[in-house]
Amino acid sequence: MGYQEDEEPMDVPAVLDALNAVLSMLYRSALQYTVVSGSLFGLQYLALGAELRTYGEAELADTRFVVEKLAALGGTPTTDVTPFGWAGEPEEAVGMLVACEKEAIDTLRAVIPHTGTEGRSEALEHLMEHLILRKQNHDFLTRAVRQATGH
């Protein structure tokens, strides 16, 4: 069973590099959501803190998927965490989260061109699209920033 003539094989070394970049950002996302959710104070932020905690848990689940894919392709998962900052003001902290998540989405999207068109490629592409969609569904954060800043 070989490739069909119209199939493009996966560029495994490029995919492994791109997945490790994603993994580093997923680590950051999980930590950043956890830090921000635990540092918000005030009644007006109770719901936001709970929502951010849920997002952090989803990031950990996604991290496991990416580690599994890296291992299945023969790669070594990075342990490097993309750096992130901390802000004591809730509006600034959420703004930082939104900016970091946009960067993470761009990094997820950068995996797709290297996946090719073979069967395992399609599965990896769909995984990246699923992770992008989940992150984009955090529109709650963008609305919170707009409401807080008036933008």
Structure commentary:
The structure is a single chain. This protein is mostly helical and 151 residues long. Helix 1 runs antiparallel to helix 2 and helix 1 packs antiparallel against helix 3. It is built from 5 helices and no strands. Helices cover 69% and strands 0% of the residues.
Characterize this entry briefly.
This protein is mainly alpha-helical and 151 residues long. It has one domain (12-76, 86-149): Ferritin, core subunit, four-helix bundle (Ferritin, Up-down Bundle). Helix content is 69%, strand content 0%.
What is the tally of helical segments? 5
> Class in CATH?
Mainly Alpha
Q: Mind telling me the CATH superfamily name?
A: Ferritin, core subunit, four-helix bundle
Number of domains: 1
Whole-angstrom Rg:
17 Å
Mean pLDDT: 89
Shape label: elongated
- What is the N-to-C succession of helices and strands? HHHHH
Fraction of residues in β-strands: under 5%
Name the CATH architecture.
Answer: Up-down Bundle
For this structure, the CATH topology is Ferritin
Alpha-carbon distance between the two ends: 56 Å
**Share of helical residues:** 55-70%
Sheet having the most strands: none
Low-confidence runs? none
Instruction: Supply the helix-strand structural class.
Output: mainly alpha
Number of strands: 0
List keywords for this structure.
151 residues, Ferritin, 5 helices
What is the fold's blueprint, element by element?
Blueprint: H1 12-39, H2 46-72, H3 90-109, H4 119-136, H5 139-149
Helix pairs in contact: 1-2, 1-3, 3-4, 3-5
